[in-house]
Specification:
Shape: globular
Oligomer: single chain
Mean pLDDT: 93
Radius of gyration: 20 Å
Strand content: 15-25%
């Protein structure tokens, strides 16, 4: 496709104002030393005749969450009703913690962590799930995978959390903590934690409604879920830290997902606090 044809195609897709913002974004990118994020920021900005709410076609992974039928499933214990720690106290004491006890994580504590961070906590009037984290358009793009190396009553393995069942689906047995450590640029606390939660976002789930603006929204959703992980960990005597430095395509390889449509967002190594 020639440059002139490409320009005309972009004009027709983005509209006059959208194309103008694209040009402004390119100028910003050059001025800021090649920061291409400024290009997206401009194009995805709202304005009165914004035309970016088109549906983006792509990989589709369930209406609200993925499922892995046919995989071995582990039902998680019923989550505790209370930790005895007030939410305001948990906010005050929350810290990023990179040191974890060698003690294995109790399955009941992992169950509570998953449920109160990203679990299904109710049903909406139309029958869709209500989740523990707020989500743009209730589209719920966040998926959680669990790399378990030291969890009581749970074999070592890579699991997918199924919020509808409140259970784990075994993807592959084995200890993946070292692979995740290497993917996270050698950050040792990732490899030492008994559990690593891996948050991804199914882009096409949100983009089916919000088009090109969705790349903003999926990061908000992941951030909301991530803060829940922090606060639940704090309330239950566990320690964690949000890890955003990792080789994206290496994480996708470990999870066997398509990085184009399901994007790694954050890693959360989790263990008990060292007092």
């Amino acid at each position: 496709m020639g440059v002139e044809v490409l320009i005309e195609k972009l004009k027709s897709l983005l509209g006059t104002r959208g194309f103008s913002l694209l040009v402004e974004g390119l100028r910003d990118s050059v001025r800021l030393g090649g920061d291409v994020s400024r290009l997206y920021h401009r194009v995805a900005s709202l304005y009165p005749d914004y035309s970016g709410y088109f549906s983006v076609e792509g990989g589709y992974y369930g209406e609200y969450y993925k499922e892995y039928p046919g995989r071995e499933r582990v039902r998680l214990p019923r989550p505790v009703r209370s930790s005895g720690v007030d939410v305001l106290e948990a906010i005050r004491s929350r810290r990023s913690r990179r040191t974890y006890s060698r003690r294995p994580l109790r399955l009941a504590d992992l169950s509570a962590l998953l449920y109160y961070s990203v679990g299904v906590t109710g049903r909406a009037w139309w029958g869709g799930p209500k989740r523990a984290y707020p989500s743009a358009g209730a589209l719920q793009p966040v998926e959680v995978y669990v790399s378990a190396s030291r969890v009581e009553d749970l074999g070592e393995g890579l699991y997918h959390y199924n919020p509808g069942l409140h259970g784990l689906e075994l993807l592959r047995p084995g200890d993946y903590s070292r692979e995740l450590e290497e993917a996270a640029l050698g950050q040792e606390h990732v490899g030492r934690a008994p559990v690593v939660l891996i948050l991804t976002a199914v882009y096409s789930r949100t983009a089916s409604r919000y088009g090109q603006r969705s790349y903003r929204y999926i990061h908000w959703d992941a951030g909301f879920a991530g803060e829940n992980i922090y606060l639940v960990s704090e309330a239950m005597g566990m320690a964690t830290v949000a890890v955003g430095a990792f080789y994206d395509y290496e994480v996708c390889r470990i999870l066997e997902i398509d990085c184009t449509w399901e994007m790694p967002m954050l890693l959360f190594p989790v263990g008990y606090r060292v007092h």
